[in-house]
Amino acid sequence: MLSTILLGELDRELERRGYRFVRYADDANIYVGSRRTGERVLNTIECFLNQLLKLTLNSEKAAPSSKRRCTKCEKCTVIVISIMTPLYNSHKSYGRD
After folding, report:
1. Confidence class of residue 62 from pLDDT cuts 50, 70 and 90?
2. Which of 25, 41, 48, 88 is the most exposed place for a label (fewest CB within 10 A)?
3. In total, how many domains does the chain have?
């Protein structure tokens, strides 16, 4: 529920930009036309999260994937992102898994 409250602004921004996406709590898939576009979108989304929402991406999970394709059209590149919310950050700072 915390993710939904914090990331509602991200949802609105992705919709405003016209991206197709699916978000599951603090993870999201954003569908774009190419890997190059995916890298550009990933950079702009990371700036949006850092500057406006004061959140960071989990760099281990965030990347455009040329191997994952949209199941509907098989043409879209999928950007997989995982957002580290304050709750996630505080959990990790205590060394818990």
Report:
1. confident
2. 25
3. 1
